[in-house]
Amino acid sequence: MLGGHIDSWDVGQGAMDDGGGSVAAWEAVRLMHALGLRPRRTVRVVLWTNEENGLRGALTYRDTHRDEIDNHVLAIESDAGVFKPLGFGFGGSDAAYEIVGEIGTLLDRIGAATVTQGGGGADIGPLMREGVPGMGLRVDGEKYFWYHHTEADTIDKLDPLEMARCVAAMAVMGYVVADLPERLPR
Q1: How many secondary structure helices (H) and strands (E) does the chain include?
Q2: Domain limits of the chain?
Q3: What are phi and psi of 136, to 5 degrees?
Q4: Is 137 left (phi over 0), alpha (psi -120 to 50) or beta?
């Protein structure tokens, strides 16, 4: 599963928090489709709602899909802006961490190869608490709080190259995990 949240803070458009993350997730799956990539497992995009007001969308998703949680192999969230991607933060078993760390090396050419332990995201938190491994896209957040929850959080702040690299990072990680012969170990 790839996702971001579509609700923004009242005063801004929510381009960095988190329209950009939502678009990156959607574009990652669109890219897989355009390239004719069909992984062994389904890759689902979830554009979360109500993150900014108590995670009601994430909690409703978890409750609605409670009987399917065991089928969720990995949840990846982008909610730190779509700046230059650095890699991912991972929350899950040590065995799964080794696997996603190896996958991360595929992103070395765009500087996004580092996978660290400890990660996830607000919207995927309810799934992670049910045992689903989770990852948060890590980006260069130097400018994030220039825009976060302000009137300056507008689409003109998004850099198309950095956005494309975020899409690539999510697409590579999402596709390879979905196409592994075996599921990530919990």
Answers
A1: 6, 6
A2: 2-179
A3: -115, 135
A4: beta
Claim: this prediction has a pTM higher than 0.90 = yes
Q: List residues with catalytic annotation.
A: 51
CA–CA distance from 139 to each of 24, 110, 125, 153, 166 (Å)?
13, 12, 19, 16, 8
Local confidence band at 181 (pLDDT 50, 70, 90 cut-offs): very high
Q: What is the pLDDT of residues 33-76, one digit of tens each?
A: 999 999 999 999 999 999 988 999 999 999 999 999 999 999 99
CATH architecture of 2-179: 3-Layer(aba) Sandwich (3.40)
Torsion sign (Cα): 54, 92, 84, 44: negative
> Could you tell me if 126 and 101 are in contact, meaning their C-beta atoms sit under 8 angstroms apart?
no
Edge to edge, the sheet with strand 45-48 lists 45-48, 2-5, 75-77, 134-139, 85-91, 114-117
Name which of 91, 89, 66 is nearest 79 in CA terms: 89
Give the CA angle between residues 158, 127, 124 to the nearest 5°. Answer: 10
Q: What is the DSSP string of 18-30?
A: IIHHHHHHHHHHH
